[in-house]
Each structure stands twice: as C-alpha cells, then as structure tokens.
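Q: My labmate handed me this sequence with no annotations at all. I'd like to see what the chain might look like in three dimensions before we decide whether it's worth expressing. Could you predict it?
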Amino acid sequence: MSIELKEATGEKENLEQAAKGYESLLEQNHVRDTKSERERFQRKLERAKAQYTDWEKRSQVLQEIVTSAESRVQDVCALETDPNMLPDAFEDDAIEREEELQQISRNAARTKSVDGFLVFDKEDPNCKLSFKDLDRSNIEATPDDLVRQGLGLQLFLKAGRVPQRLPIHAVGDKTGPAIMDYGPALKMFGVPEGPGSNPGQKSEPSAEPSIEDSVEQCSVADAPTALLEPKTERDHRQQGDSPQTTALLSEDQQWALFGSSKFMGDAANLARQYAKLVADKERKEDKKSQKDKQSGESSATDPVVPDSSTDSVTDSERWPAVEQLDWVGFTNWIARCKQADKSFGRVTLKTWRSQRSHRMDELAAKLKEWKAPEGFDDGSSKHPDPKQYYTGQPLAVLDATKLGLIKKPRTPKP
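A: Here is what I predict for the chain of 414 residues:
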C-alpha cells in the first residue's frame, strides 16, 4: 500500500508540474495570438487538471488507509509487551479482521426469506437421470494424430529433449499420459448426454418383469458378442472399421527412431512424406473400386481397353508399402525404409532436405515476381503498417529460439 501511495503522489506531482507548464505557455505571446495553438494547450491544461484531481483523491484515500494501518500496528505493539508474542498477536488481529469481512458478506447476502447464504440441495445419488457417461475432458490420447501434424511433432520432440518428455506425456508439471483435446474428443466419442428435463426426479424402484415377458425375451440363438464401450482413443480406433496396424517395433524402439541423433531433425519431412503416400494409396484404391463398379455395370460385349496409367511406376511404388495413417504404420514404414535403403539416414534424407529447400526458394522467387492485377486488393490496405507497433525480431524467431531450434549467439567474455 505504501508503494501505491508513493506512485499516486508522484503522478500527482508530475501532473501539477505539467499544468503549470501549460499555463506558462498560454501566457506567451506566440501562443496567445495563435488560436489553434491556444485551443490545443487549453485542452491539455484542462485534461492535466482533471487527472490531477483524480490522483489527488486517490492519494488522500491511500494516505488514510496507510495511516489507519500504521495506527493499528502501533496499537497491537502497545498491547503486547513481549516481542516473542508479537507474531501471535498480529495473527489474531488478522483472524479478527477476516471475520469482519465475512460478516459484511453475510449481511450483503441476507434475503427476506432466508437469513444467510443460499443453500443448494445436493443431487440425489440414486437419481436415474444423473450423468454417468464418459468424461470427454479426461480421455487418454494416442500419437496417431501427430502423423498428420509433422511440423508439430518435430517441434514437440525438440522442445522435450531436456528434460526428456515425449508427446505421449502430459504437458506441464502434471505427470501421466497425454489427454485428448476436448473438441476432437467430442468429435470422436460424441456429445455427452446430460440429465433429462427433470434432474431432480428421484429414482423409483422398477417393477419386476412378469413371467410372460421373461419367456418372450428368451431365445436359443447365440448371444451376440458385446463390445466394451471405448474409454480411450486407442480403444475407439481398435473398434473402428479400418484394420489395425501390427507394430514391427516396440514402443521404446518407436520413439528411439526420433532421438536427437536419429530422425528428430527430419520428423516433419518424414511425416509429410508418409501422409502423402497414404493419400496416394487411398486415392488409387478408390479409383480401382470405382472402376470395378463401372465394369460390373457395363455390358459384357464391350471391348476391354487396358489402362495405360498403371504402366508407369508411381512415386508411391518406389518406396516400401504404407499402411494406415497412424503412428504404428508411420514407424513401420520408417523401419522398412531403413531396411530397403542402407544409406537412408545418411544420404537420402539429406537429399530430401536439399530438394525441399530448393523448392521453397523457387516458390519464394515466384511469389516475389508475381504482380497483382490492377484493382486487386487482398484486404491489407485496410490495416496499418504493423511496424509502427513492433519493430523487433519476428515472433517466429523468438519462439524458435525459446524452443532451442535457433541457438543464441554467444557473447564474448570480457
């Protein structure tokens, strides 16, 4: 509180000096004879006086609070002569003041019907309509989605080098598995069904079914195999329609592929390449299924024309076969690439990096050469130049430096 009082006093003194300066300027001849200048300084003087009045009121209030606190401290010290008992005395005084604040809150919460705070009835634990569905905010996640976000995977791996933290671990100080985002969890598991229209309805004992109803429900057929309700993202994927990918590596071996001395620096390119190959595979399968469907509907007398598009070897066929777009399929594909290409890590990936860098340079050059047609406006004309607000390093560079992607320059020792 003393710091706030000092700050308010300083602001009040500065505004007082500013008001005096404006008054002296208004008395000068070149300002007094110029109408625009006189009006401008007159507005500044009125604003400074108004702000001075506000800060003066704040200073008076703070001064009263500080004076009252100092008086209270002196009273406590005067009542307790033993210095060793002063901490207990101040603690008792704080408890007393806390009770006064609570009493103020009680007085503010009093109503005509109830004397005190509002009291809510607890939910009946036997209520049939109570929510007992899966908690969408606490579902264990799998790293399958990381294959679709190659750059995010690489950033997470580099940021988690020290201390060792994998994307399957929870973010922050909390230990445990990673939890799905609430939005994707709702998309995968559906929106939870809340209580009915009457949550306060209490459960009633259900009537026992009659013998006739029980006999009608009897059947000699084999009972269907019931699937357990999925509780995690992995359970949901295992019960999906797509076949599950069989892992060639253990979980430790999978993450070992992306060590700092392995493929951590190429995780983004590898994930992009694998996602592209999976997309090519699915596109080829869709075309084949459509072609088979059309051939089945066509007449048997029509001549069969061979498809010349399958004669050339596609980019997908130059690499080992891909599986599902998931984490296991991704790591299986990297393992197969290492087996098929002994120089995969030393030579091939370096070639990919240089080719990608060359394509990015060509794209940047083409964008610089592009000229907008006459009358074209992308909306930037409606926004001011951002450099008038910030002229420092780009935020991307600051974030990359913080994550360790860009090393800070070493300052020479004196």
